[in-house]
Amino acid sequence: MEDVADFFAAQKFQIAIANLARRLSDDTLSFETNKQFIPFILSALAFFKTNPHDFDVTCQFNIKLIGDRFYSDISDSRIDEVGIENIFTSCYRFLSELAFYKDGNFPGNVAYEVHRTLEKIQYEASEIPARVKNQLVYADNFMPVALAKSYLNKADFGLIKSFDEKHSGLGKVVEELNTKLEASKKEVGALHDALKNYENAFNFVGLHKGFNDIARSKRRSSYLSICIMAVLACLMILPFLWKIWHVVNNESSSAFNTELFMAFLGYDLLLLYFFRVVFQGYKSVKGQLVQLDLRKAVCQFIQSYADYAVKIKGSNPALLEKFESLVFSGIVANEENIPSTFDGVEQLAKLFEKIRAP
């Protein structure tokens, strides 16, 4: 709520109502007045003293109309019957305005006490003089209409009316938004299904990538093994090609050279041994690649398999044991079938011993 100027909370007003309350409580008035006026005025002054901010906020209508006159009446040092009647009617109007804006359902609440005080006066209105009763009739019947009109003419309510006029087609806008929302829900559903497929395809993506990196390294090793075997094969047939070329171009020299033949034979056997070693390594790498490809394939369908198994069999702690034993098992290299270098040297030594034996 917007800030309002102090009227009831002003120090001069509080001093004035304190002085008036003291004077009325002395019961030394020099004139006759209605017995209901003084208790009602004292009750109203007590409300003004204990709840000044509530009256400042809610009673702006009467503050503007009769505020100055009311302050003049309560601060007048000479109090007569007409002055008491004016103070009574002014207090009644201020309390009626607060009761119009505020509801109180519990004892002790200022609005509840104000309602009770007003009702007491209304029940005994027959004893009030006609000139004062007319003011009460205005406060009870006509002032609420004036208060409502004042509220409706406020700038804030004008904004509400302007908003209602400008956005009279809001229902149509809401309907369009609902249509777009339904279409968006369908799109989101389609995207959800697509993402579910991607989840199944790329689940265990980290593990799949690790296997793929290992497989890439193994493939480079297999390519290198093929190149080495090709080089060894060329080196193995090179002596025979050289001998054929030499025989073709030197027909007169047909003598058999035993030492050269043995050198060629030993050279080819040595190359053959290394060729066999490289070939066994190549076969081992190919076996490992097959196992890695199997693991990558398993990583692509295991999520769907696990979901399906859970739905069919229920929760089972040993559900993925076979999968884990397959994926996380060591890669078999079959090294027991690959001959060592020293084994080859021993075989060559035995061959030379047999040749040299008489």
UniProtKB/TrEMBL annotation:
The keyword Transmembrane helix applies. The keyword Coiled coil applies. The chain crosses the membrane at residues 223-245, 260-279. Residues 174-201 form a coiled coil. Keywords: Coiled coil, Membrane, Transmembrane, Transmembrane helix. This is Uncharacterized protein. It comes from Pseudomonas kribbensis.
